[in-house]
């Protein structure tokens, strides 16, 4: 055999070895394409590594349907998902405000896909209507029922889709009788907070784990008639991954119970405001909880 052929064979062998090595991870952790997902995926990945499993990361996959397809195909073994998102985007069932009911619905609906929802965290990243402390004090606002009394004097900022959603302006009108003076559209959540800080709007539609809430002491108004569906976060895992590595269940259930909205606000701020890397933020969080050293 000529030297050239030997070199080609050797390079081919190396390439095949590299492929085998790339596929050798015990677990592949994925995520969707926004900050909170990157952080959660890193927390899950590092907790699993601490438990002795090798982990490959495939983050920034895209939206819900892309991540769900990757999970079904086996391109990833797990990723963090939100119950309300799964209910509307994958299960395609009308929204419900009952967190236990929604979790049961998505858990049952995912079984034919051979996917298991682990225990949800105390993180509910659903819609929140927020006002400044001054506005809350001025109008005595604590709940959305309180807001209904003064909404005709106030303007709201939200995404374009909020105007037509049953858990948006339509639902607020039907459930609470809330009718705002005007509705300003902002494609990006950050722009809504900028407008709220500049007094260009009185009420902002955000998400409950947005870091700006704690940073600026904004007041989330209680959804006292339970309009908004729950968006509890939990790892969704392939059944075959659990069969291969049963310890995944306890590891992720345990670490998920360390998370709540206030914690996620803080972790999101570390990345978005302080420009820290999600991997470093996850490491520091897990160290603070004694999960890793």
What does this structure look like?
The chain has 293 residues and is an alpha/beta fold. The chain folds into 2 domains: 3-124 and 232-288, D-Maltodextrin-Binding Protein, domain 2, CATH 3.40.190; 127-220, D-Maltodextrin-Binding Protein, domain 2 (3-Layer(aba) Sandwich), CATH 3.40.190.120. It has 14 helices and 10 strands. The chain has helices at 3-22, 35-50, 64-73, 83-91, 99-110, 133-139, 144-150, 169-176, 189-197, 211-215, 239-244, 247-256, 261-272, 278-288; strands at residues 27-30, 55-58, 78-82, 115-117, 127-131, 155-158, 182-185, 203-207, 219-220, 233-238. The strands form 3 sheets. The chain has a 5-stranded mixed beta sheet with strand order 7-6-8-5-9. The protein has a 3-stranded antiparallel beta sheet with strand order 3-10-4, with helices on both faces. α2 (35-50) packs across α12 (247-256). It is globular. The protein starts with a helix and ends in a 5-residue tail after the last helix.
